[in-house]
Amino acid sequence: MLLGAPATQAQAQPGPAMPESLAQSDQHDAVILIYHRFGENTIPSTNIRIEQFKEQLESLKNGGHHVLPLSEIIAAFKSGKALPEKAVAITIDDAYASFKTQGWPLLKDYGFPATLFVATDPVDQKLPGYLSWNDLRTLQAEGVTIGHHGAAHLHMVDEGVKAARADIDRASARFRAELGAIPSLFAWPYGEYSPALIRMAQERGFEAALAQYSGVAAMWDDPFALPRFPFNERYATPERFHLISNARALPVIDMIPKGPLLIEGDTNPPAYGFSLPYPVPGLSALACYPSHAKQAQIQQLGSRRVEVRIDRPFPAGRNRINCTLPGPDRRWYWLGKFIYVPGNPVD
Hints:
Mean pLDDT: 93
CATH class of the largest domain: Alpha Beta
Strand content: 15-25%
Radius of gyration: 19 Å
Shape: globular
Largest sheet: 7 strands, mixed
Order of helices and strands: EHEEEHEHEHEHHEHHEEHEEEHEEEEEEE
């Protein structure tokens, strides 16, 4: 999906919508997967081995999953339309050449759609190992959705809104010149975002923006901070993939803190908690794990309020809290929370 031009005013975003029951919540969530490189085995931190990727695609094919275009899932979130059970979207960041030579041929064989988020500077600079504009036009003609990933792959929170806006506008000009229009879906570089950056993305007319912390995306999430599960060689075991691809979103309301950003003067670690709109069986088995510490202490207040107590401050940079709960049919609920501690002052 492409934009004709950036919007000049922020678009009003609907408030969180909740299904009427726990049973219905599974019709309004989706697992979004993120990959970077394919078969580039000398760079394991951002690579998936081809045999691993084939195994994952086979698991999706035979596991009752419905692999849908990302734009279709986001449209369903916004409209309230029900999604099929085990809805999955496949996304790729950074436009490495191995997507065209290794990843996309396999996805085509399985008939699975994909969204490729492109940072335009490496493409313009013709850096080795990256796709060209001709490659991107070919992929788009073959059905790949092209997404917006900025120009220079900035750390946007640390660089500030002004720099981020200029970076996005520069990339948008290149997309318009080379592809004829501006992608309407955006992925935050490094998965880093803030409330001010979300407002800026809305002003630029994007329909949604994707983050990069583990969690199942759902209709009640902020459409400009949708979670994705990243995969690389180390974190691609069949057991982990099965757990993630079959996960469900834990329906929550009244979450604190609302945003991800901890700036100077904020309490660190923050008070973290959420409520459930309806009872969830077996809630006492909920476990939460901060990325920088051991399992957190959980206090359940009544039948529907959960408070998570973390015993040490989050360090500078990207952090997360993952909460999991065994669910029906051996499908786990998975709730992710992104926490960012800037290294520089935030404007």
